[in-house]
Amino acid sequence: MLIDIAKKSPLFSGKKKAPEESSGPAWKILIVDDEPDVHTVTKLALSRFKLDKRSLEFINAYSGEEAKQILIKEENVAMAFVDVVMESDHAGLELVKWIREDLKNSSIRLILRTGQPGQAPEEDVIVNYDINDYKAKAELDSRKLVTSVYSALRSYRDIMLIEEAKENQIKHRKGLERVVQATSGLFELRTLFNFADGLLTQVANLLNLDSETLLLTCNAIDAMSEQVNTDELHILAGTGQFSSHHEKPVPDHIRKLLQSALKQKRCLYEEDCFIGYFPAKSGWINLLYMDGISKIDDLDKKLIDIFAINVGVAFENLLLNKELEDTQSELILRLGDVVESRSKEAANHVKRMAEYCYKLALISGMEEHEADLIKHASPMHDIGKIATPDAVLLKPGKLNEEEWNVMKQHPAVGHQILANSERPILKAASIIALQHHEKYDGSGYPTGLRADEIHVFARIVAIADVFDALSHARCYKPEWPLDEVLKTMEEGSGSHFDPDLLRHFIDNIEVFTKVKDELSDENLQS
């Protein structure tokens, strides 16, 4: 009888039809039945079935337990025919319960079939079990079989489309969250090097990639030429095989791809490569090259486009901030040079001071931004000397008491010049100018502050200033040997100098002597 049912199927014919081109993977149908003939007939009756130009793939299980193992391993099983009575009277019902409750699979369409409907009444089964259809084997002819499969697969297809839409919505939302998270970190980076390194990290996180990357920058004027030369593309950072490419020529095959992005003024996706195009209003263009990436989907492309806009804003802010800081620092450095040149101090004194203070701040455990602040503020430590008379400032011999009292006024004068500014560098400079002649034991001037009452910036500057003064010839003394300099400074530990900062300085003296040699007056830099 089962074979007759199969032969009467509208899909069964002795004539062979030309195979249709499939539009996707086959629908997976699980047949769970302890009778081999049921498997054979079901496959025969549905052998030429197609939905959306997709055929069927049959998976066989001959018990409830075997079906469980298959469902654990197999993905995207669309529907299952489940016999009620197998290794036990309720094996099929137990399998249905396991699929819905333990496996938590609510997508698969389940059709129960039984040869003994009295053992599991239809109404009780439909009410108590999450199934999609219930059929007695005796009533399930070929036409009803085909109809039930069409109904089940269409239902499964629609469920999967809804799930896919939900997943895409979640993915899109998470993608946007990653964009915000990635670019927010870039806004905090203060240097071009950190920005370059951070950008590579954030792009990899955004796309969940671990590929070879290069970050380059190009002047927009150069980018307008038909052929961009390799010396016009500056490598800022790289990862993987490109990590050693810093300031080296760009490989020719990469240059051609970068030229294409510059010409089209947009991000490009070429085979397994991605070229990011990030322009800034300041006239510079950042280019990101990623090699060995898998195909990027449409959602990732949209996320990259949004990311590119935010990167452009972050880069623009970085350049503007850098321009302001560089201008401010240069003005401070030049003012410091003016003061030092007037007092006949060593030509590179303020530059050495800036580097001494920066390195001692880092060695003593200060944050990078704090060390950077003292580096830019310290050149103004003697700005008050601009008001000191030449007769006092340039006197080659020892100052008398009256002259010394005049000289001691320069910290207060410097503070007055720089005070009341809200700019961090100028605020720091005003504190340094006022306090850098204070001593740790309270015997300094102008106000006799002691220990932690003296700002840490001023305590650092005090060490750097004395070291540089003793290490170089002045109008009133010759240069001292290094061992005498260190001996004298150690004698001032706890009285003139902060003992902890001085210990950091002496323990790392090679760092500071290197700065002294590199910025010696013989190597005067413009």
UniProtKB/TrEMBL annotation:
Pfam families: DUF3369, HD_5
UniProt keyword annotation of Hydrolase present: yes
Single GO BP term: phosphorelay signal transduction system
Family annotation (PROSITE patterns): HD_GYP (PS51832), RESPONSE_REGULATORY (PS50110)
Alphabetical list of SUPFAM superfamilies matching this protein: CheY-like, HD-domain/PDEase-like
Superkingdom of origin organism: Bacteria
GO molecular function: phosphoric diester hydrolase activity
Location of the Response regulatory domain: 28-152
Keywords from the named record: Hydrolase, Phosphoprotein
Name the UniProt record assigns to this protein: Response regulator receiver modulated metal dependent phosphohydrolase
Native species: Shewanella sediminis (strain HAW-EB3)
Classification of source organism: Bacteria, Pseudomonadati, Pseudomonadota, Gammaproteobacteria, Alteromonadales
